[in-house]
Amino acid sequence: QVQFVESGGGLVQPGGSLRLSCAASRIVLRFYTCNWYRQSPGKQRELVASIESSSYRKYADSVKGRFSISRDNAEDTVYLQMNSLKPEDTAVYYCNLPPPNQHPWGQGTQVTVSS
User: Fold this and answer.
1) Which tens digits make up the pLDDT trace of 25-83?
2) Smallest Cα–Cα separation from 82: which of 70, 73, 74?
3) Are 91 and 108 in contact (CB under 8 A)?
4) 35: helix, coil or strand?
């Protein structure tokens, strides 16, 4: 069964930066479109960024210009570089494939932006 592992979260001040990483077992990520999602308490999970195998990228309006999704095909890892972080970016961040081909969700990685 495919398992996603997210890492790189933490506590940062507004305006700070973090880089999140996504790895997976039993799947070669570079062959697929990969998404980053986030979820805050009381809110639905939302799509933050997406990268196709061709490296075509798209972003939610709320993070456009601040976040950058990328992939290292040699390491088969997907990254989310998060700059100019705002308190409203606070959430648990997850990676997965787009629907209808999603796999079980990993634990995610917590990002907290606070003074």
Assistant:
1) 999 998 999 999 999 988 999 999 999 988 899 999 999 999 999 999 899 999 999 99
2) 70
3) no
4) strand
